[in-house]
Amino acid sequence: MLSGIHHVAIICSDYPTSKRFYTDVLGFSVIDENYREARDSYKCDLGLPDGTQIELFSFPGAPARPSRPEAQGLRHLAFRVADLDAVIAHLASHEVECEPVRTDPYTGRRFTFFSDPDDLPLELYER
């Protein structure tokens, strides 16, 4: 049966900007990076220390996300953090704005949302 999530695939509009965001701002490391000439596309595998990966793709002419975040389909991507306030401060130092911190009424855990360069909704969830 299933044992975990291996990766999430993201198509970006500006590859260098998104690659910098996920590596320099969020701290993912580059596992592998390939330019696929036949598709005029990059594929970059990014990883976190726990093994979680993002496949970052660039595709020329890819359509924008239809709405945020209440469209059908994947709603957002959430990252587990130990210290929510420290991560919010880190993001602010990179001029990334977070929504006001909320508390999940069911778990009592604190969380907030922010966006990647393509306005993809991302969540920080304190554990």
TrEMBL record:
GO terms for molecular function: metal ion binding. InterPro entries: Fosfomycin_Res_Enzymes (IPR051332), Glyas_Bleomycin-R_OHBP_Dase (IPR029068), Glyas_Fos-R_dOase_dom (IPR004360), VOC_core (IPR037523), YwkD-like_dom (IPR037478). Keywords: Metal-binding. Residues 4-127 form the VOC domain. The keyword Electron transport does not apply. The keyword Metal-binding applies. Pfam families: Glyoxalase (PF00903). This is Glyoxylase I family protein. The lineage of its organism: Bacteria, Pseudomonadati, Pseudomonadota, Gammaproteobacteria, Alteromonadales.
